Amino acid sequence: MDLSIIIPLYNEAESLPELKAWIDASLKDFSYELIFVDDGSTDDSWKVIQEMAGKDVHGIRFRRNYGKSAALYEGFAAAKGKVVVTMDADLQDSPEEIPEMVRMIREEGYDLVSGWKQKRKDNALTKNIPSKLYNWTARRVTGIKLHDMNCGLKAYRADVVKNIEVYGEMHRYIPYLAKNAGFDKIGEKRVQHQKRKYGKSKFGLDRFVHGMLDLMSLRFLSRFGGRPMHFFGTSGILMFLVGFVMTVWIIAAKLYHQANGLKFRAVTDQPLFYLALVALVLGVILFLAGFLGEMIARSSEGRNNYQIKERV
Ligand code: UDP
Ligand code: MG
Prior knowledge:
Helices cover about 50% and strands about 10% of the residues. By secondary structure, it is α/β, with parallel strands linked by helices. It starts with a strand and ends in a 13-residue tail after the last helix.
């Protein structure tokens, strides 16, 4: 099997037959399977999928709506092709782009090729402009030079999807997950984009808030996920030291004034006392967070999952 085409969908019944016909017309030179993942649709999507199902057309139906990441996760698990392609179900992504993306993987050695909707046919205010900002941030944080990180149309070497785990809403950052797993030959291809023909978009503006938080989590995890004590311990010790020095200073000043018969005020009357108190307590808390994090990291299942490229 050359390709697995994974199509996550939620209430896209009208689009599906057209989408299948369009894919079939675009991929004449390949052997491929279609995997429709119905993410708990409440319209006729599943009925349509059942009618289309056959030898190389499969459907997976969730009992409820879990989100696009979950759908991709199950699709990746089921995929049998040497190259795995994902695309949206709403006819916005063009399957005519697939052959070139596959060629880039096969011949140019890319691990992952992401689409780039350079001329995006969505609402400018709610999608296009925020998306530019979002992608700029994502480029800086992840160090991956993609213009359209969250494009639904992507192609992967099968290895990649079998070795990363998409969860939560992390479908936005699959290139980053791939990079963190050591698949760093990541390319992009400009792709045609269409206006949504049927139904409506499933993602609102909250995706930018969630997206940014997820980006921070991933960045932190990739840096300190396996060694939380290095982050929390360092900041905890620094904080504690600051508090300690202040405390010593407060006591020394008090003793000095007392010994020399100078005027002095109560220790609790000075701001420094409270700052020292906060710093000491924060230091201990941070240190404790690091220690707890270390215990979690130590018992986590993936603590020794390394990507081995080759052996001889
Ligand atoms: N989708 C999904 N589960 C969800 C939300 C969306 O499987 O909970 C699918 C949706 O049916 C479509 C793709 O993800 O195939 C992209 O969604 P959409 O077109 O709404 O996003 P947009 O293009 O507006 O960013
Ligand atoms: Mg869409």
